[in-house]
Amino acid sequence: MNSALYERYQQAKTENKAKYARDLAAYLNVSEAQLLHSRVGHDKAVRLNVDAPTLLTELATVGKVKAITRNEYVVHEQVGRYDNATFSPHGGLILNPRALDLRMFFSHWDAIFALTEDSKHGERHSIQFFDKQGDALHKVYTTDETDMAAWQALIEKYATQDNPELIHEAAAPFTSQPVSEELKQQLEQEWRNMTDVHQFFVLLKKNNLSRQQVFAAVSDDLAWKVPNDSFNQLINTAFKDQNEIMIFVGNRGCVANFHW
Haemin-degrading HemS/ChuX domain: which residues (predicted)? Predict the structure, then answer.
């Protein structure tokens, strides 16, 4: 599959020069992980044989990098350092408020690759983490302030000649319970008892509900629907008034927090 997909990728690049890897993968009807997997042995792409917590911890040695976390709707970019890391078997924190601030859920993490590719600004170096569905969870790019010797040493330490086929899993469907009147009252009370925004995630997990279900269940003074263009207005107003805000951008395995 690798050679055939790589040839299709080369043709697709010619036909879609402005496309990102995510878009090219969709165009070719493969996952982004499968596309990068096909480039190993052809381009400057290598598979890394290391678990995510270990690699993320050692990224602290390379200095400033650009970290990217995205989903279907939004891309979060943050230049910073992988300092102040804390990990457990199931999750992790990179806790640098107002800088690189991440939450990770490792049950979703799978393949890791390193890539060097040409760009209009010269060579671009990255480490890319993918989930079990082949979607990019997190990407790390070098900057002008990255210690390239430490970066290359890290890649060489974990690079492997083995590049086994990726085995993707279907994403588990989200199933939730109906929201009864009794549950609405319970949610209302639990929401009003919250003392920290992070407790909202616990509320969702505890009651097995989506955000939208909870938003619809509580009173209008807690949550209400706004026009789709309100986000731009919110950002511009916050900037104009110099209000502090936090923005969370997440996917299945990683949440990035922007604190302005």
Answer: 29-158, 208-256
Q: Please give the CATH superfamily to which domain 3-81+110-158 belongs.
A: HemS/ChuS/ChuX like domains (3.40.1570.10)
How many angstroms from the chain centroid is the CA of residue 172? 18
Element containing residue 255 per DSSP (H, E): strand 254-259
Give 166-222 pLDDT, tens digit per residue. 999 998 887 778 899 999 999 999 999 999 988 998 999 899 999 999 999 999 999
Domain ranges of the chain: 3-81+110-158, 181-243
Tens of pLDDT, residues 60-109: 999 999 999 999 999 999 999 999 999 988 899 999 988 999 999 999 99
3-81+110-158 and 181-243, same CATH topology: yes
pTM over 0.85: yes
Cα–Cα dist 96/108, whole Å: 23
